[in-house]
Write a structure and sequence with these properties.
- Helix content is 53%, strand content 4%.
- With 104 residues, the chain is mostly helical.
- It has a domain at 28-86: Orthogonal Bundle (Recoverin, domain 1), CATH 1.10.238.
- It has a two-stranded antiparallel ribbon.
- It holds the Pfam family EF-hand_5.
- Residues 56-91 form the EF-hand domain.
Length: 104
């Protein structure tokens, strides 16, 4: 009986830890690293195809691409990607940061 309880307690600790490891990677990482990874042909720019590859929602990724493509050349430079990403704490997520008006 004690062995069964010990095994259940151990399983209760291991299963949540394994689930955390399998969570999707968090967005908001280093834009330069993301850019380098997505620039599969290493031409220094991202095509729409490169940008939306592996995106969970191609429609949203396409809209983001078009919004970031400031010069309309249908390619994104690293500068456009950096400029198009919200600064830390200014995204649409459910973060616990203070709103700008609260910070004043």
């Amino acid at each position: 009986m004690k062995t069964t309880l010990a095994m259940l307690a151990l399983a209760a600790l291991i299963i949540p830890a394994q689930a955390q490891e399998k969570e999707a990677p968090k967005r908001g990482g280093d834009p330069a690293k993301m850019f380098e990874k997505k620039d599969t042909n290493k031409d220094g720019s991202l095509s729409l195809e490169e940008f939306i590859k592996d995106a969970p929602n191609a429609e949203k990724a396409t809209a983001a691409f078009k919004k970031m493509d400031k010069d309309g050349d249908e390619k994104l430079t690293l500068e456009e990607v950096k400029a198009g990403r919200p600064a830390r704490g200014e995204g649409k997520g459910k973060g616990k940061g203070k709103k700008k008006e609260d910070a004043e």
